[in-house]
Amino acid sequence: MNFSKQNTFYVFLWIIISQFVSLLGSSMTRFVLGIWIYQSTGQVLSFAMVMVASYLPSVVVSPFVGNYIDRKGPRLALAVGGILGTGVLAFGTVAAMADHLTVFVIFLLTITLSVVSALEMPALQALTPLLVSEERLSQANGMLASATSTTNIVGPILAGALYGFGQISWIIGINFVTYLLALIVILILWKSVDTKKENDNKKQQYSFWQDMINGFHYTYNNRALFAMIMFHTWLNVALGVNSVIRQPYILDFGSEEQFGLVTSLFGVGMVLGSIAMSTLKVNSKMIRYILLSSLGMGLAVLLTGLTESIWLIGCIWIMMGFLLPITNTLSITLIQRNTDAAYLGRVFSISRMLSWGTLPLAYVIGGVMGDWLVSHRVTFMFLNPYGFLLVVAGASISIIVAYYASFSNMKELEETKENITS
């Protein structure tokens, strides 16, 4: 049963609301699982392994998930993700209530929820253009960004409060309820989703593996599309170095409370930027805005390394947080507009695999270089080692932006809508 894009926009809103609730529950669960594993084992390595388990499975399964989404449809991927998440959280809730929560159960929860994330996010990105008119795509993607960024701030706050007064079983149980509600919404709206594109996909005669290979070929051969994906992949390397260095940099001259403050301000900036993108309809000059906002983030990282004023860093991080949803939202919109609907799941999953796959590399580069510079007491004029690495990371972002602005064919994504290769 297909409706007009105007009517299905309200279907999209209901899906976003339900996903916001489940994302909030997941944010709370991730927060308390890290605390629990550290308090139970007393080992930083165990905490680090939980962090790895929270994203590495998503990287590994992304290509398979993308192919599954294109073959079976995004709504089915959302349903499967909801069933997996609900099931594992029900098990985790029972284990916690029975005081049988173990390291094995924690890793089972973390790995499964990482796989569920790999199912749900590309599915939502692939489903959005099926439900929303092209003129409102950037607005719809902004709403999705708002849901994600808001839960990343509110989730830990709620989890910390509940964990301080209650049990971890409460939080896992709440996450179970949020996943169950999101699953119910998907099932209720099942027939209201425009499935025409999904049905067309059933005509393909290729095997699963051949379809997956075709997805890689499609992404690589669409040069402008692939340039956009690689642009974000390289950005993530520099931003990943920033992520691992900024904490020791600030703690070198500030306190844990001050670091928490500026981190919260970054989150506030993300929420404000996401809200702005969810209220504005941007239909032109997207590449220019993407490059300018990315350049702004690079300058923010660079300026952070040049100052030890907490309040100045807080202001800089608000700006950086505000710019991040602009870059991401408009990039997702351009990918949706320039990708054949039959390949949306694979393209978004390949993009996720490349972008997330660079984070371990960035963390290793930042950690090794930071430790080496500190151990050898290397300084650069008035910069300490951590400040120097932030300046290098910020300058690298500026160089990446300059290169793609001058030599990349990303601009073709806006020049024509007929550049979709098959």
From TrEMBL:
GO cellular component: a single term: plasma membrane
Membrane disposition: Multi-pass membrane protein
Keyword Magnesium annotated: no
CDD domains, per database record: MFS_MefA_like
Zinc as UniProt keyword: no
Predominant place of localization: membrane
InterPro entries with a match to the protein in the record: MFS, MFS_trans_sf
Compartments where found: Cell membrane
Listed Pfam families: MFS_1
Keyword terms, alphabetized: Cell membrane, Membrane, Transmembrane, Transmembrane helix
GO MF annotations in UniProt: transmembrane transporter activity
Transmembrane portions of the chain: 12-38, 44-69, 76-98, 104-132, 170-190, 224-241, 261-280, 287-304, 310-335, 356-374, 386-405
Protein name, entry field: MFS transporter
